[in-house]
Specification:
One of its GO terms (cellular component) is plasma membrane. The protein contains 19 helices and no strands. It is mainly alpha-helical.
Amino acid sequence: MPADSLIPPSRSIDPDVPPLPEPDADGPDPRRWLALAVIAVAQLMVVLDASIVNIALPDAGLDLGISAANIQWVVTAYTLAFGGLLLLGGRIADFTGRKRAFLIGLIGFAGASALGGLAPNQELLFAARGLQGAFAALLAPAALSLLAVTFTDPKERARAFGVFGAISGGGAAIGLILGGVLTEYASWRWTLGVNVPIALATAVFAIGLVKESRAAGDRRYDVPGVLLSAAGLVSLVYGFSKAAEEGVGWTDPVTLTLLAAAAVLLVTFVLYEQRASHPLLPLRVVLDRNRGGSYLVFLLVGAGIFAIFLFLTFYFQQTLGYSPLDSGFAFLPFSGGIIVGAGIVSQVLPRIGPRPLIIGGLVLAALGMLWLTRIGETSSYVTEVLPALLAISLGMAAVFVPASSTALVGVESHDTGIASAVLNTSQQVGGSLGLALLNTFYASAVTGYLVDNPGAAPGAAFVQGYHVAFIWAAVFLAVALVISIVLIRAKKDDLPAEMVLAA
C-alpha cells in the first residue's frame, strides 16, 4: 500500500459548514447491527431491481404495446442511468452526507418505482426506469460507504461485508424468483410497485438507526469531471448494449461511434482528473494496487457471472421447458450458496486475510463454470446444473466479501463514497461488457454449428452456444484470478490498521 494512503485525512473544513461527528467518536454505535439490516435491505433492492423486471418484460410489452425492438429500453434505461451517474452519486454522498444521500436515494427510488408501476405507456415506463437508475446511483455508493464508516472493528466489518457480499451475489437470483412470482400471480406492474413500501419503510427505519457522516475538507464539485465521466460511461454502457442487440453487433456504425466516443471521453476524463484541483475521482483511489486489483476483479467477475443468469435462463425455458417461475426457483440454490458461503467467509476473513479467499473463490467459480459445459438437451438439473451452481455460488461468496473489503482498504474518509462508487461502476460496466461479449460469442457459436451441421436440430445448436458462453465466462474468471494473484497483496495483519484508517 502506498505511503500516502496511511496519512490521516485532513480535518480542515469549509467554515460555512459545521463538521459532523465521526461515526466512532464515542465508540461503536450500539445500534450498528440494526443499521446493517437497513443498509442491507436497500442494497438488496438495488441489486435485484436489475433482474426482477426481466421476467416481466413479455407481459409488460404486451400490456403497453411495446415493440420487440424497444422492449430492451426497460432494462437499458436503468443501466444507462445507473452506470453513468455512479461516480457523481458517490461524490454527492461524500459531500452532502452519506445518510442524507441514502435517504434521498430511497425516497427517490420509491417514487420512480411507483411511477413505473403505474405507467400507462412505454414512454413513461422508460423514463421511470431511468429515474430508478439515477436514484440507485446515489443509493448504492452511499450504502457501501455507510458500512465502511459504521463498522470499524475488523471482525465486525468482515461480518458486515459478508452480508453485503451475499446480497451483491445473490440479489440478482432472488430478483428472478420474485419477478416470476409477482408476474405469474399478480401483475408485471408489481415487479416495480413492490419497491415502494420496502423503500419507504427502510427510509423510516434509517432515520433513527443510521448515523450521519460526510467528508471533511474541500467539498467543491468537479463539474467538468462529472460531465466527462457521465457521458463516457453512458456511451460505454450503451455501446455494449447496442453490440448485444440482434442485428446490430460490434461492426455497426452506431456501436463503433459509441465505443469510440466512450474511449475519447474517458481518456480525457483521466487526463483532466490528473490536473483538476477538486477531482471527481482522485486517481489515488484507483492506483493503489489492492483497491485497483479489487475493481478489476469485480469488473471481470461481473462480465463472467452474467453467463449464469442469461444463458441458464434460456437453457431452463427453451431447452428444458421450465416456466418462468420454475426458472426462478432453479436459481434458488445459487442464492443459498452465496448467503451460506458469505457467512462462512466473513468468519474466516480476519483469520487468513483476503488474498487466499479471493484466489480460492475464483478457482472454484471457474471450475463450476466449466462444469456447465457438460449440459445437454436432456440433462438432469440435479446432476449437471446443481453442482455447478453451488460451486460458482460458494466461489463468488469467497470473492465478493473480501474483495468488497479490499476495495476500500486504506481509502481516506474523504473518498469513501467515491471508492464505493468505483466498485459499483466496475460491476455495472462488467455486466454490460459480459452481456455484449457473451451474447456475441453465443450467437456466433449457434450460427456456426448450424452451418457445419445442416441437418442438426436447433436445440443442439443452442446448447453448443451455451457451452461457448460458459467457456468464455470461465476465461474472464481466470483473468480475474491472475489479476488477484499479481495485484492484491493485503494480508490479515494489514486489515486492522488499514480498516481503522478507512473508517
